[in-house]
Amino acid sequence: MQSIDSLRELNSKLLAEILKDKNTEIPELRRKFAEIEAERAELKARIAELLKQGMEENKRRDSENAKLKVRIKELESENVEFRDRITKVEQRQMLNDSKGNNSSNSSSNFNLVADQVPVVIIHVPKIDFGFLRF
Questions:
Q1: Per-10-residue mean pLDDT, the chain, length 134
Q2: Which residues form a coiled coil (predicted)?
Q3: Which residues neighbour 124 within 8 Å (Cβ) at sequence distance 6 or greater?
């Protein structure tokens, strides 16, 4: 019987030692868990801020694109008007040439109208997507 009692005593000592080791690990694991949770919260906040910035940038870009589309339509319309005017001037010049007018006189009339046609240059800004980097 003594061997069973000694085994029970040894078993209880081993269990006590194991519990002692595990109990010393628990605070360290809790500290690590708290660090991970804090880092997770920071990352969530950063993601939310980046999403907000992205949405604001998209709104700004959408607004700018809408304005540019309107401006393009205006310029296309002006371009059509100028082409029509140039076509009419060329037709008048051809009529004048066919009637026997002096060609230097006709070209000077064309130059007068051509000088009135403005040159339109469209500048499309480069878009920076750098705000999306982590």
A1: 85 89 87 97 97 97 96 95 94 87 52 57 66 60
A2: 19-92
A3: 68
